[in-house]
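Support request, please re-run this one:
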Amino acid sequence: MFNKRSFLAIVVSIIIVGSTTFGTLMYLDRRDYRIFLGNQYQKYLYEIVTNVESLQVSLSKVPVTMSEKQGIILFSEIWRQASAAQDKLNSLPISHEALSQTSKFLSQLGDFSYALLKRSNSGEKLSDVELKTLQKLTDYAGYLNAQLHELEQEVSQGKIDWTEIKVKGRTLFANNLQNPVDVKFENIGKELQQYPTLIYDGPFSENVLNIKPKVLNESKISLDEAKKIAKNILGEDRVESIDVYSNKQGGKIPVYPLSVKIKGRKNGNLDIDISQNGGKVVYMLDDRDVKSSKLNMKQAIDKATKYLDSIGYKGMIPSFTLKYDNTALINFVYVQDKVVIYPDQIKVKIALDNGDIVGIEAQHFLVAHTERKLQKPRITAQEAKDNVSQNLNIKNIRLSIIPMESLREVMCYEFYGEYNGEKFIVYINAMDGTEERILKILETPNGELTM
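Re-run finished. Output below.
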């Protein structure tokens, strides 16, 4: 009896010790993960603060520079910093709705600066109205900078815990509560709503978004259907679970906002918005870390093209590429009957470590895309070529549709060529021979940039 009792006591002791050890290890592992996650979000916030500080300083310098070269440098820096801040902003555990106005502000600020960059490069001076607009933008950037510093201080003082927000996000949503960072950015958004409307033109202008989305003409789908579509797009074998991350349905294009947990992944969310009309991918962001670069740009383009085709976006070709932080950002445009349709564009982000699609932005495409009744050009390519400077060594000619600031679309002959070692694209109206636009292609460390 004694031996039996002793044996049982030993077994119970082993179980207790084992359970305690296992529980301790699980606690330590979870604690380490929370620390890692918190550090990552803190790093993103620090980088956003740095970006906004830099663009605010650059904005403040513009009115006091008389140098064309310096103006180009400043607008380039504002454009780059605004894009970087927007990219990192989307990596924080904040709802898209809370971020929408701040994200839009950064996007339009970057695009406006890009338009002024083109103006400066052509030697044009800024008007008094544009200088006043820049002053207002400087003020709003200063406000955003101050609010971000305040948020950074609250995090460092322990008033805000990124990991609590991340872990309890769905609980807060279920109880109709908001996390404090969401509230912070919603208040920022209310203030930023007052910033001046930024008008800029170009093939990638937000003016395209002012029209009624064509996708709204398609049939509505249910939430369950949207989840099935998301599973099919991402691969059923990869998906562990799908939840709704917000009770909002989107802006111009109503969506089902879905948060996907990937099998075998300890950290890193994947959010995907499926349009309620037509069941199309409007937006997708996978915030996993990409730590290496093994694929070249050609391989990335091939993977992105096949992927778009597989999810229903057919007939797309790449128009420009950028490479940064071990990812490739590829802008695609639609081709109909061998005519390049610039309003119908989709941006795809590729992880260069393994070729995963880690980002999609298809709002422009879903707003503008339709099968157009294309007009036949009234002038020939040769007649259009006669209106192009003889200095341009033409390498390629093709037909294209470009959007104008008036929202109308114009069919043009697109002449790609070189002059004095530099690359240019000239657009000649295919109906009357008018020179509609000239773009200059700049080689940058991250890829080609059109100006």
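Residues 238 and 263 are 5 Å apart (CA to CA). The first strand starts at residue 239 and ends at 244.
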